[in-house]
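Board notes (copied after class):
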Amino acid sequence: KPCPPSWEVKELAPCTVTCGGGVVPLAVRCVRKDRGLTLPLPHSKCSQIPKPASSKTCGAEPCPARWHYKTDSCSISCGGGVMQRVLYCARTSGNQEKKEEILPDAECQDLPS
């Protein structure tokens, strides 16, 4: 008796991030296994089975907290002034848009700034 058709899913690329959320593209094709071989079939042959998504999330755990800083404006407009740095504790999250989550300074207190 021949095996029924099924969806085969393969990752097309490794995850691009280790934390904060990324996306891996997937190749999805309809196949039938026959005597150890994988035979490709038209997608219509798998229409009775829900088709898997063509991508999946990866590296979803939050990135570790670390010190970030923004530079403030210079104290004077000419003649050599002082540039202020505003230090804050944060971690990045989100895949494409890279959101920044501000955290309490206590979460970064043992880290070098």
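Comment from the instructor: The beta strands are 6-11, 22-34, 37-41, 55-58, 66-74, 83-93, 99-102. The chain has no helices and seven strands.
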